[in-house]
Amino acid sequence: MPTASENTLFGMGNPLLDISAVVDKDFLDKFGLKPNDQILAEDKHKALFEEIVKRNKVEYHAGGSTQNSVKIAQWMIQKPHKVATFFGCIGTDHFGEILKKKAEEAHVDAHYYEQNVEPTGTCAACITGDNRSLVANLAAANCYKKEKHLDLDSNWELVKKAKVYYIAGFFLTVSPESILKVAKHASDNNKIFCMNLSAPFISQFFKEPLMMIMPYVDILFGNETEAATFAKELGFETDDIAEIAKKTQNLPKENTKRQRVVVFTQGKDDTVATVGEKVIMFPVLDIDQNAIVDTNGAGDAFVGGFLSALVQEHALEECIRAGHYAANVIIRRVGCTFPEKPDFH
């Protein structure tokens, strides 16, 4: 099997510092949050960020969906370092320095676009039981500029070095033109472009940019809630997850050399994937409910594990197995964090 080399995996997205704390239902109600959701912060959430940092046992972790995934992929691969490249925008501030340090510790080759107009983005992870409600204040992450960063020769060279590309749907709210440039490069060169539905609000409110990128998507990830919302927005008229996967697979595609693969996770239920003309269910690893500490990052970890096997050109079944392993490790810990080494064979 080919081993991964430097900069084989390319990710681009919103680098955020996760601020996670265990909260109660009253806290969720106060800010009008659902127990298990991802939303963008509005003015009414300003106080939430001030309040959450005052809670006892608040933890800070480098986050942002795509950055989490490439970091997990790098952790699963271990050596060489810097298999994963990451682009995104941060502020010239303390939180930005933390993100740079954390990326370095994870051996990810992060090239941030740094600007001083907006502070580094943050994401409040409000944990109740095994649920997590995420409120993202993009700030600097929202300032990524194609012409100021992606188009620079030295950066574009790194893009060209990659064989596998992964961008979470969240980045559609920031720079669809950057995504399109990367997606077209992948398609034109028969490389693998992966994307994630990321959250129900992406399909609901950013359907146009999502569908502009869809013809270039070789592998699409999502969870059961996101899949259902996507199906509703596209008028699939079914809530059967296997049928949604099939219909999504059959959406128009630019590079016909690769059949689209659709992978939907469903928490503790089977992962659904299109394999050729079939839809197959893959059971996740058993875990005692009491061992689950925090499901924040489970989806990102699944993608990270999957990508680690994909860049090594493993079969789809192997990629899913690696994804299940990584997710199983991450849900036993707070935030998207991991032990020193994986125990995956």
Automatic annotation (TrEMBL):
Domain of life where this protein originates: Eukaryota
An annotated Gene Ontology molecular function: ATP binding
A Gene Ontology BP annotation from the UniProt entry: purine nucleobase metabolic process
Reactions this protein catalyses: adenosine + ATP = AMP + ADP + H(+)
InterPro entries tied to this protein: Adenokinase, Carboh/pur_kinase_PfkB_CS, PfkB_dom, Ribokinase-like
Protein's cellular compartments: Nucleus
SUPFAM superfamilies noted in UniProt: Ribokinase-like
TM annotation in the entry: none
Keywords noted in UniProt: ATP-binding, Kinase, Magnesium, Nucleotide-binding, Nucleus, Purine salvage, Transferase
Short name of any one Pfam family annotated for the protein: PfkB
Class of the enzyme per the UniProt entry, highest EC level: transferase
Name recorded for this polypeptide: Adenosine kinase
Species name: Seriola lalandi dorsalis
Lineage: Eukaryota, Metazoa, Chordata, Craniata, Vertebrata
